[in-house]
Amino acid sequence: MPIPQFEKIEKKQPAGTDAPTSPDFTKIAEKPRRSLAKDRLFFAGKIVLIFLFVIIIFCSVLGVLYYKNFKQAYNLSFAAKDNLELSIHKVINRDFQEAASLINQANSEFGQAKELLYSVTVARYIPYVGRQLKAVDQLLIAGLKLTTSGEKVVLLIDEITAPLQNESISYALITSEQKKDILNKIAESEDLLLEVQQEIDEAVLAIEAIPQEKLVKPLREAVSPLKEHLPKVKQLIDSSLPMIRVIPKIAGFEEPKSYLFLLQNNSELRPTGGFIGTYGILKLRDGDIDTFDTDNIYNLDRSTQHVIKEPAPWQLTKYLDQKDWSLRDINWAPDFPTTARKAIEMYNKENEVILEFQRSGQPIIGEKGVEIQGVLPYEKNLFGVIAVTTEILGELLKLTGPIVVENAIFTEDNYQDQLELIVGILYQELNIPISERKGIIKKLADEIKIKLSLLPLSRLPEVLDMLFTALDQKQVLIYINDYETQNLILERGWGGEVKDTENDYLFVVDSNLASLKTDQYIDRFTDYSLSWQGDDLLAKVVLTYKNPPEFNWKKTRLRTYTRVYVPLGSQLVSFSGAMENDKRRDPERRPGEVEIAEEFNKTYFGAFISIEPGETGVLTFEYKLPERIKEQIKDGTYNLLAQKQPGVIPSLTLDLKFGKTIKSAAPPELASEWFNTSYNYSTALDSDKEFLVTFK
């Protein structure tokens, strides 16, 4: 700072004195002074400007050095994307070799792009730029893993489907040796698919490692669809592995397999799908149906009922006047593995009685006391049980088109009415013996089999889609008498078991007890609600049944014994709607009791209800949920598993009041319902469904 200059001022001395005097400092003139803070700010500004200048120079140098790398990596990535899109079209057109070549090229392009960006080292230490580069790195890793696995899968499909390349030919024209070879290749593909599964898992991890925030728009747009769709690819591969293990075994590869076949009429609903009116034996050998014979189940049941005296479940005794159990009513347990094992046991018992009759020369007396020549040959070595509802016939007729059997036309719309008419009434007019009245089902099945085998292979995806939908909706249930294979069936969700869970749970099971074929006309609604009452978490199930007007030869009042399976340890608080019996058997219309019991690691509440045509019936159960469900909510999470009964698709509505703000829910509610304290959702219960709610 410059030194202030003083102006020299001379002051006259008072007269008579020579003493000197000090200067008058009040007359000093100073220049203005800058504050210390301003000086420091000025200095800091200079530093910042210098630093920015260095950064600009540095970035310019980086741009010059790495521009070529960035541009080439960008072009290679887009070339890979284009090749992948083209490969998808090639797969759709079944040009698997060309698709594999394109995927391989995409893999090479992703690899080159990754190498180019790997050399960009210095820029990775710049926070914002480094974040973008990390995202690109992970995207390229995912791309490499996906293309590596994709090429393997496409080449595998090409190898397996080699005999099917000509889409104009039908399944019937594929030789037995070719079918066997296909199954062999499927069986051998497990190790390769395990490699693919690992690569997909690594791709998922790469995508999950991408930073969630502060990505430039192009990267966000690239990452978003991968995060959405890659888990679905993983799920597809994960679910395919059990199929790879299961299909060859079920299809009779290397060793023929025999199954007890049960046709369940879901117009007469029973716990695992419907009343078993027809049974049969299905034999598979190397992917072909070797033999498939069916028969009226009453031929087997009626001829042995006076010998086998196994007590029926008490509900069958009370509401059907049936004291003894037989194969047609064996599906009382809603857990299909339990029912299947019991069906095999009863099938063996009844056939052993028939064999004894044949050895001793006793007559075999079937339905309505009519003597019959015999029943289906006894198959002792059953590999499992396959149960289907009559719904599957309609789905198959969609594929085949109308079929004519015994001068009757069967279509996807009328098959049920036609079968019930012929089997229930017209067989007498047609002079068909009562023991053979269900022979029309075997003839229809044979015609469907022929028409399906003659479909061009181009329609194979339709057939498979129908089959997998039927399995997911429990219109087809499978039980295998082999521990490893059965576990794979359950893993895939095709076993119809009552599932284990420590979370909230709901499974409504209806059983038609002498209501003709009324269930096909009933509208069913399940309303499930939760709410807190003090420290208790109360659940309420309201079951509504609407029975349209009119009695006729196949429709009457609905008589159902209903069981509601809930978490083990739930305590019933109140109920309403239960009946002692229907109004014809109980004119006083007395209220019924509720059965409370435990099975399959669940508590269930059971009650009988009858609904007249033109009326609506309602069953209600209110109960306290066990402590563990309350603790889960307090800890921030709620899970509900709602299981579907085979043979019926009711409406399900949830109204869950938690008393704490919801953070997320899957499946999501409408946006207008978000971030409050209740979860409201409605859906058709066409498969088992899980609901997950988390709290703030």
Features:
globular; 22 strands; Immunoglobulin-like; six-stranded mixed β-sheet; disordered N terminus; 696 residues; alpha+beta; 22% strand; Aminopeptidase; 3 domains
Can you characterise this structure?
It is a single chain. This protein folds into 3 domains: 43-245; 257-488, Aminopeptidase (3-Layer(aba) Sandwich), CATH 3.40.630; 499-695, Immunoglobulin-like. A 7-stranded mixed sheet has the order 15-16-13-10-18-22-20. A 6-stranded mixed sheet has the order 14-17-12-11-19-21, with no helix packed on it. A hairpin with a 2-residue loop joins strand 15 and strand 16 (602-611). The protein has 15 helices and 22 strands. The two termini are 62 Å apart. Helix 1 (36-92) packs antiparallel against helix 2 (96-118), helix 7 packs across helix 9 and helix 10 packs antiparallel against helix 13. It has helices at residues 36-92, 96-118, 127-160, 176-188, 190-208, 217-250, 297-304, 314-320, 336-360, 391-400, 415-429, 439-453, 460-472, 483-492, 627-634, and strands at 257-265, 275-285, 288-296, 364-365, 371-372, 384-389, 403-405, 408-410, 476-480, 504-512, 523-533, 536-546, 558-567, 571-576, 595-599, 602-611, 616-624, 637-643, 651-657, 662-666, 678-684, 689-695. The chain has 696 residues and is an alpha+beta fold. Helices cover 42% and strands 22% of the residues.
